[in-house]
Amino acid sequence: MDFKDHSGEAMPRQHLVIQGRVVTTVPEVLATYRPTPARITGDQWRRIRPLVTEAVAATGYDSIHGAHFALRVVSGFVSWAEDDGVALDPEAIFQPERAERFIGGARAGATRRTRANERSVLRRVGRAATTKAPWPGEPQPFQGHVHLKPPYTPAEVTGFWEAAAQQATEHRQRVMSAMLLLGLGAGLKPREVLDCTASDVQCERSSGLTAIFLEDRTVPVLDIYAERLRALCRAHPIGPLIGQWNRSRRDPFTGLRRGIEIPSHLPTLTAPRLRTTWMATVLTHDLRVSEFMVIAGTVSSKSLEVIAPYVEGRWTGNEYMHKAAGR
């Protein structure tokens, strides 16, 4: 289906309308974008525009929607920093601690998902726009590791849950929900996802902690997924939580996944990426390395090194320095 404007003319699929003009490329987005006067006055925009557009351009966005969102986030951040008396210099403005203060203060009223997406933008732009600021390195090492994949973004996770609720049949809803709950909630490996049953999931009565008892380890389930997982267990007390699957198939997990419908704007749903997303979440919970290894199972030191850029650092007030000093 072609999109059409009010005149009836066909519109490109990937387009935005900015200032009454249809734009289809990232350079056009950068050249055309203007924040609303309610957000940033015209005078201030003229002052900060060069810094904002150059920083976003340096990041190398391929998507016009990604570039547009980045411009919104970065323009708000730079405007806030200038109002705070910071010089319009990339090295002065794009500091991890300053970005965290912006997200935690000026953006405190936004939803958790929105703040996570905006934090991700500021990290990416900050890395591209500076050479001295202490941003974590760009997570490139995944290119050389077949089995370790980057975590899904909060927006992608939300998209998967929405897709799970919209599956055409109850069976497909069950399959996708089980994949998400066991992967995001407990970091289970593909075969573990396939074999997990309701009897493997136990809830400690005194604390309410839900855990999955596997052959080689016990994994606590993230609280945000625990109730949904218990509900899945109540609904399917017998057999694999994911449902019956073809044991003679070479890759049964992929076979089950092919039966569910994923919107085209979302990445492929895979067990390794669900597990990596779980790892990145758990590692923000002040877990010690020895403890993490016990619940995660086999994890190489190289895997930890590769995933580190995706684990949120405690940069505000140099908290990580105080933690390292034992304070």
Question: What report would you give on this structure?
Answer:
- This protein folds into 2 domains: 133 residues, no CATH class; 171 residues, hpI Integrase, Chain A (Orthogonal Bundle).
- The protein is globular.
- It is built from 15 helices and 7 strands.
- The longest helix is centred in the first third of the chain and has 20 residues.
- With 327 residues, it is mainly α.
- The strands form 3 sheets. A 3-stranded antiparallel β-sheet has the order 5-6-7.
- Helix 2 packs across helix 3.
Brief overview, please?
This protein has helices at 26-32, 42-59, 64-83, 90-93, 96-106, 112-129, 154-165, 170-186, 190-195, 223-235, 252-258, 271-282, 289-296, 301-307, 319-324, and strands at residues 3-4, 10-11, 16-18, 21-23, 201-203, 210-213, 218-220. By secondary structure, it is mainly alpha-helical.
Q: What order do the helices and strands come in, and which of them pair?
A:
Layout lengths: L2 E2 L5 E2 L4 E3 L2 E3 L2 H7 L9 H18 L4 H20 L6 H4 L2 H11 L5 H18 L24 H12 L4 H17 L3 H6 L5 E3 L6 E4 L4 E3 L2 H13 L16 H7 L12 H12 L6 H8 L4 H7 L11 H6 L3
Antiparallel strand pairs: 1-2, 3-4, 5-6, 6-7
Defining traits:
two-stranded antiparallel sheet; 6% strand; hpI Integrase, Chain A; 327 residues; single chain; 3-stranded antiparallel β-sheet; globular
